[in-house]
Structure formats: C-alpha cells, structure tokens
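SEVERITY: medium
COMPONENT: batch folding queue
REPORTER: lab tech (J.R.)

DESCRIPTION
The queue accepted two submissions in a row. Attaching both inputs and their returned structure tokens so the on-call engineer can compare them side by side.

ATTACHMENT 1
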Amino acid sequence: MEESGCSVTILFRIAILVLICLTFSGCQQQTTDAITEEDAKALMDRYMEIHNEGTLELADEIFHPEFVLKTPFLPEPIVGIQALKDVITNLRKTFADFKGTIEEVVVKGDKIWSRYTMTGTNTGPLGDLPPTGKKMHVTGMAITRVADGKIIEDQTYWNVLGLYQQLGFTLTPPQAEKM
C-alpha cells in the first residue's frame, strides 16, 4: 500500500508542476514588435510612395538600418537602405512610369502580408538587355517584417518569367551536350 500512496503523491506533484508551468507561461509578456493594421497600411503606402514618386529621402524614415530585401528578380538579397535606394533608382530608370499599388494587407504580429500590383513601360535597359517599349503588369505577394516601427525585412514573390514574356523576351532551352 505504501507504494500506491507514493505513486499518487508523485502524480499529484507532477500535476501541480504542470499546472504552475501552464499558468506562468500564459502570463509571460509577448516580445514581438506587433503592428496594427492601420499602421501597416500607412507604412506600406509610404513604401509604395518611394517607388512611385522617387522620394528616396523617405526610405531613411521607414526602413530599419539593417534592412534586407529578398526578391526573385535578384540573385542575392539587397542589404541596407542605400542599396535599396539604388535598386529603386534603377527601377525608375527601367520603368519611367512605374506604379506600384498595394491591393490588400493582412497583419499578424510583426509581419505584414500584402498583395500588390506593379505596372510600367520598359523605357530603360533591364540590366544588359535593351529597353523594349512594352508594358508590364505583374502581381505578387510580400511578407514584410517590422522592428522598432520600421521595415527590417521584405520577402517578395512574383513571376519574373512572366515579366520577361510581357516585355517580348522568349525562353531558349539549353543546348544538349554532344557526346
């Protein structure tokens, strides 16, 4: 009987410990840098203003000094505010009438999930490729993370091949190696 009483006591103690852990874990403060939907929309509108109007000085206000942009268009992430300004300057030279529009925003914690549209006419070179004079219309998604009220990371997802096709470029398959 002593063994049975000991088992009940151990189980009781374990149950109390679990209850205490659950109680205190629910009371811990969240450490995320949450953003409201209203603030997120305002931040994303300002982000698009930089692209649409070329107001590069605004970048210093809304981007974190450790900002990183990941986009399928570029092989490596863009790191830093000045690098982002350079990308936007080149974008505006390539598509002089560039227009970006945020269509929808969803906020969860410190992340802004957005659906956007980009339009423009290819009036400048696209890297080593000559301008085509053709229009583009691309939709995409982005996950934008905020820290200290500023954008610290932006991951964009959109169809790069679709952009090139709209500009008149074609995909050429690789040549088979001769054996």
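ATTACHMENT 2
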Amino acid sequence: MSTDSKTEIGEFFNAWNAYRKVLENNYMFHKEIYQVVGQLLREQPQDKPFKLLDLGCGDASFLSQALQGAAINYYTGYDLSEPALNLAAENIGQLDCRMELVNGDFMAGLSNTREPFDIIFTSFAVHHLTYPEKAEFFQLARAALADDGFLLMIDIMRDPGQNLSDYLDAYCLGVQTNWLQLEPEEMTASCHHIRHYDLPETAETLAALAKAAGFRETRPICGWNRHNALQFYV
C-alpha cells in the first residue's frame, strides 16, 4: 500500500462520525459476526490467559464487547485513525487487561512484533492491501503467533469466481440502496473509498495465501452477504 493510500484511508476513517453510522445501523453485519466471534473468544481456556494483537482496531467497540468474559490479559491495537484510538482507549479500558494503543500502520506494527501473540485479530482491514502485501501479511502474522495461536480475520470477500470490478459494482449498489442513514456526501465518500481502496479476495485465495505462509488450516466461522470471518490455525 502506498503512502498516499495510507494517508487517504486514514483521513477517511478520521471522519469517524460517518463510520459510526455504518456501525450503528449494522450495514456491515457487525452485530451478527461479533456475536459469533465473542463466543469463540470466550471459549478459550480460562486458565490460559491470552495476548491479543488487534490490527486496524478502530474504536474497538465491538471487540471490547466480544472480549467481555474472555481470558485476555494483554491487548495491543494499531490503527491509522487517532480519533478512533481515543475511543478504543475507553472501550478496552473496561476490560481487566493491560493495554497498548499505537497510531500507525498495522503492517509496520506487525513486522516490528518481537514477542509472540496468542491471537492476532483484524477486522475489515486486510482488504486494503494489494495481493503481494496480503501474502506478506500472512507471513508476518505467522511469525508473530505463538505455536498454538491463531489468526482471526473479519473482512469483505468476493464470491467464488467473481472479479473485482463486478464485486465493486455490486457492493456500491448495496451502499446506495441500503446505507440510507448516511448523508449524500458521506455516501459519495464511502463509494469513492470502496472503488479506489478496496481490494478484497475470495476466501479460497486467502486460505491459499495462509497455507503458503505456514498456516495449517483455515476454518470459516460465519458470513453474511460477503462479510465473513475466517480462523487460521498455526
């Protein structure tokens, strides 16, 4: 991802009020997905507290709720949006764990990780990476995980056999049809962002990249209308 792309993506998410409308109106199925993710996280052994690295954490509002009752003892979050991180500090602060929040690029943070994490989590962030960057992401994630750890990814994904152009047309039509609580300028900015910076892969492609990076298995967790969660096992 170029520096200009990172800057514009950061500026887009700095307009956090618009994205809050997307979250509050559940346009990207956060409620359904995080209900399943929360169950998975709370199923982790209570006698083995885990360290979690959150890449592209945003305000961590949904993840902080999903982590309620889970055996987390250390949280690190990376995001380009400073306003979102300020909110994340409040949300993660409700958990009984140590916390570190970093205003920066999550790929740089991932490459600088020195101690292994038990869980690497990312939500609606990896689709901004190019194909070679996604391959690098899986390699870095594998290196940053403990031997019995896993990567948990929520993201938009193309249907099997669907090309990027058709995906973008379909997704933007869905935005214009369904995201009705956005102001016209917010809807225009959302579609501009999607068409210029969204590069989703199919689930099958992500699984192949993970396998090439050394992940043992990919497990589909849940999905609603191209919004999916996958678990990658070391």
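NOTES FROM REPORTER
The CA atoms of residues 9 and 193 lie 8 Å apart.
No errors were logged for either attachment.
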